[in-house]
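Quick question, first post here. What does this chain look like in 3D?
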Amino acid sequence: MLKNVLSLFRYIRTDLERYCESWQNRGIAKPKRLRIIIESFLFKDGFQAVFLFRLCQFFYKLRLTYISWVLVRFNVFVTGTKIEYNANIGEGFLIAHSQEIVIGRGSIIGNHVTVYQGVSLGVKDLNPENINKFPIIENDVILFAGAKIIGNVRVGRDSIVGTNSVVVNDIPPNSVAVGVPAKIVKKDHSALQKT
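> Answer (accepted):
Ran it through. Tokens below.
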């Protein structure tokens, strides 16, 4: 139990650090940390969605599944985001705008991933062979508004998936993918500034 509590606080701390970074990226010079924490908990629906997911997962690990389900539904009601309690999401998760985000139960998301509104991560179809094949999003990825990552695909580290793109094939690390279906338009985008 203590291990789960410490893990919960570690995840929340790293998530809050990402929100502090996002303030600085918007040109707000050295905002007070306490102000960011208070505003994130009270007014930032993206952080609220992440925080409620962390609580869902905490109760799921304690085998209190019904509490997790209630919190998932509450998250949908409050923030418009549905993150299944048994998704696996790493540290420093940032949701920039929370509306209409769906992250399926088997999705794996690495550390320091940024998600914008309307993003979906889920299975390709209801065929019994595919029903448990969810996307894997590696570290430091940005999924822009409306991106759909479908099925057993991997989005490589430091990649960007463009607005309204549909990913049905693997995206190699350090790439930019756009379109329907998504195609690689740029590799080695290190010159692009990430938020």
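DSSP finds four helices and 15 strands in the chain.
The chain has one domain: 2-187.
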